Amino acid sequence: MTIHELIGKLDLSLRNNGRTDTTITGCYASDMLSDVLANGREGNLWITRQTHPNIAAVAAIKGLSGIIVTGNKDIDPETLEKAESEGIVIMSTRLQTCETAGIVYNLFLAGMGGAEA
Question: Which domains, and CATH codes, for the chain?
């Protein structure tokens, strides 16, 4: 599954410029940066409520496919700029983290991604 396909399935808002043809290999949901650094995998989509600029750095270091910020939270312009400069797509949703992760997980189980969630 690509970022573009996921945007359509979850009705996500694309918050910065970036490649939406990137393939998602799975997802990881956490609000702790150290947890994502330790356990996120390259190609994962990161689901979080964090909005500060360090999320862009963590996503770039881990080679994540993108970030979904949940709960309709405002995202600092500095965060969006940093993510764009790092090549990281940030999306947002009104859904909470658990709901978002569940939907993404079910999409992978349905065979859309062919990867682990």
Answer: 3-109 (3.40.1390.20)
